[in-house]
Structures are given as C-alpha cells and as structure tokens.
Amino acid sequence: MKGWRKTLVRPSVKIRQVLKTIDEGSFRIALVVDKDRRLLGTVTDGDARRGILRGISLDDRAERVMKKDPVSVRIYEDKARMLRIMREKQVFQMPLLDAEGRVVGLELLDELEEKPQGKENWVVLMAGGLGSRLKPLTDHCPKPLLRVGKKPLLETILENFVEYGFRKFYFSVHYKDEMVKGHFGDGSDWGVEIRYLHEDERLGTAGGLGLIQERPAKPLIVMNGDLLTKVNFNHLLDFHAEQKAAGTLCLREYDFQVPYGVVRLDSRHGVRGIDEKPVQRFFINAGIYVIEPGV
Fold first, then answer.
1. How far lies 174's CA from each of 129, 144, 202, in Å?
2. What confidence tens digit (pLDDT) does each residue in 196-234 have?
3. Which is nearest to 138 in space by CA: 129, 148, 149, 151?
4. Which residues, 6 or more positions from 14, have their beta carbon under 8 angstroms from its beta carbon?
5. CB of 35 within 8 A of CB of 57?
6. What angle in degrees, to the nearest 10, is found between the helix axes of 15-24 and 45-53?
7. Are 153 and 146 contacting, i.e. CB atoms less than 8 angstroms apart?
8. Per-residue DSSP letter, 98
9. Which residues are catalytic?
10. If we measure between CA atoms, which residue out of 57, 39, 40, 35 comes closest to residue 48?
11. Which helix (DSSP H) or strand (DSSP E) does residue 75 occupy?
C-alpha cells in the first residue's frame, strides 16, 4: 500500500487540517501518531462530524475527535486473517503496526477483496535438501513432499504465494528431484509457471541462484522450501522497495535462557553482580530473502 504516510497526523493538528488530509487523500482516514509514529488513534469524516455535533470546533485538536481504540493488526498477519478481521469489525481501513506499535502500512478492504493481479516477480523455492534430520521419513520421500495436514509442505507454500498473486516459480531441486517434478509438473494445475533448477551437486542457496540463465526484470523472492510462514509477501516487497536495498533478509527473534547464574566481573576479577538465568535475545536468519536482479 503506497502513499499511506500522507495519512499520518499529530494529535495537536487542528481538526480542519485533518479533514483536509482526509479529503486530499484516497484512503478516507487519518492516522494520529506520536513523534515515534506509534498509533494513538484514527479520524474519519464521521468522527469529525460527530465531534462537531458535540460542539467541538474545527480549530480544536485532532485528539478531541479521534477514535482511541481503532482496529489494527500486526504486519506479520496473513491476508486471510486481515480480511476476516475487517469484515467482522465492519471497517474499510486498517492500520498495520510493527511489534512496537508503530504504523508501517495501511490496508484497505476493497484491495484485500480484489483478486490479486499476477506479479512479474519470480519466486525461487529451495527444495533440494536431503532432509537428514527427518530420517527415516525422508528415506523414500524428499522433505518438501512430506505431508503437513492433508497436502505436501511445498504445495501449501506454493498456494500461499499464489494467494498473493505470484505466478512465476523456480524450484531448485536435487534430492529425489523426479518426485518433486512428478508432483508439480509445469505448474499448470495451480495456474502458474514452474521451472526447475537442477543441482547436480548441492550448491547452497546462493549457488542455486547461479543456475538461473536469464536475469529477471523484478526483484526475486527466495525462500527455503520447508517453511510455513505468515509473512505477507506484498508487504515484504514494499518494504524492500522503500529501503532501496540490494537485498532484504527476513529475521526472527530467538530467545535463549542461560540455565545458570551469570557472573559479571570487573577488570580486577571482582564480582560486580550475578544475573540469575538471564534471557539472551538474538535475531536469526528466517530463510526468506528479497534480492535485486543485479545481485
């Protein structure tokens, strides 16, 4: 969703200016945020009218008429859940927030309900691993074809991308590749195009990309073929474009609790303190990337 930043206003802005912001934009809403872009509330035409009927002046502050508990959603929620929330709450716009409550986007009901247009971005799914940690399940079946629920894992991943409008796929295959090709074929059963990158020897993620013979015109999404994720791939591409990055790496937070008391020492080996079973937090690689064609 582009242009959403124009909807941002501060709580001290006059209601008259908020209405101008709503009128000049195409979103029919203003998002009231603090100096760190954390969401404080929302204002629509209806909110302003009801405030005026209560005797509030157009020269009063936006915070006098804003809705202080607006419906919002975290950015990692998938499209189906966003659509369900908006229908249940009967809202036409919904702010997207990060983990700190900062506004990072705006979803519109009309756009979520539209059938997604086919994207030109290629998706590369890395599906050639041996699945050694899942033996003996993978002795006779490649890991991407192991069933989770009623269908193979890789099929669920493919259908998730299709839901977001992606139609062009590379499957990087190696172990029992004939089984993967036999199941998916050219992708026509899913209304997509699937090409295969065959690794004669295991090349790793970047090595597999080297088998693509023609340079794509749009950024590539590259993902491990064994991930079930709620990542909104449209938001991911928008974020990548906004950052003007050569590559974007998706991370997740991983917490590790030390099972002992950790002793802090000074330079003379004196004890400064003991932290009992502290939790260490790290960002780890989630196995999802966006890569510019030039890379």
1. 7, 11, 7
2. 988 777 666 666 787 888 888 899 999 988 888 878 888
3. 129
4. 58, 59, 60, 61, 62
5. no
6. 150
7. yes
8. -
9. 277
10. 57
11. none
**Triad 281, 282, 283: Cα angle to 5°:** 140
DSSP states along 100-114: TSBEEEEEEHHHHHS
pTM of the entire structure?
0.67
For the ranges 44-58, 128-142, 250-264, the lowest mean pLDDT is seen at 128-142
Q: Among all chains, which residue has been given the structure tokens 């993967």? A: 180
127 SS3 class: coil
Q: Using one digit for the tens of pLDDT, what is the confidence trace for 268-290?
A: 889 999 999 999 989 888 889 99
Angle (nearest 5°) at CA 180 between 115 and 230: 40
Cβ neighbors of 216 (< 8 A, separation 6 or more) are 121, 122, 293
Q: How far apart are CA 89 and CA 13, in angstroms?
A: 28
84: which 2 tokens? 């369900």
Sheet strands (E) in 150-246: 151-152, 166-173, 193-198, 220-224
Cα 91 from Cα 83, distance rounded (Å) = 10
